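WARN retry 2 of 3 for item q-0093 after timeout on previous attempt; input resubmitted unchanged.
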Amino acid sequence: MALRVLIVDDAIFMRTVLKKMLSEEDYDICGEANNGKEAITKAKELQPDVITLDITMPEMDGVTALPEILKVSPNSKVIMCSAMGQQPMVIEAIKNGAKDFIVKPFQKSRVVQAIENVIKK
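OK item q-0093 returned
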């Protein structure tokens, strides 16, 4: 069975890029969310295997949403998505339960590697 992935990013372009990359690798994109609040709801409803979670979003950012997501979907592995220069927030997210991070602009090989790494953990 294909791994189920929830993609969380406020930019539809970034969600589309990730969805295309992951679909090509036969991952099942089970849902999308455009902010942290929506991500919590979707994570609870869908219980995805992996969640890609953007750090900077309106309403609720990824670092704030992360602990809530892990409460409602404790078996999901979260991979933070960050732009360059967000290292302190990435470190905080890893301390709070994120399993890996990927940097924008996304490189397909790194995205796939991150997913494979977190599934083995």
